[in-house]
Design a protein that fits this description.
The protein contains 7 helices and 2 strands; from the N terminus they run H-H-E-E-H-H-H-H-H. The chain has helices at about 5-15, 25-40, 50-55, 65-80, 85-100, 105-115, 115-130, and strands at about 40, 50. Helix 2 runs antiparallel to helix 4 (about 65-80) and helix 5 runs antiparallel to helix 7 (about 115-130).
Length: about 140
Amino acid sequence: MNAGNVEGGLRRMTRSLPTGTDAMSVRQRIEAMEHLLEGLVTLPVVGRKIGLDAIVGLVPGIGDIITGAMGLYIVWEARNLGMSRWQMARMVGNIGFDTLVGAVPVAGDLFDVMFRSNTRNLKIIRRHLDKHHPHTKVIEG
């Protein structure tokens, strides 16, 4: 993993993020944060994508707290979309579970690579957006 490539990619990503409060701008910011936390680089041998959640989580004690706080940003943005309390509780539960189990030495680090709380939360948000804000739907392919 080349630090220069990661740094350059972060600069490009943050420069192009919209600052509006409309649903499309919120969707783009949430997707960018999920990519940062869960899919920033690909592990060379196994081909699995990891992000800051797994990388910063290696720092004992504070790493999982930092990435948990970053994951809560996604939940805060989702709240601004008017999502239900049930959806919000599920997302906070995903982050809490990831943070608690991720704090366990060694096993927690492996868990961070496999359990992607932010990707799960993005799926919940996308379902909400596709139903209540269909103009934000992005067709991939």
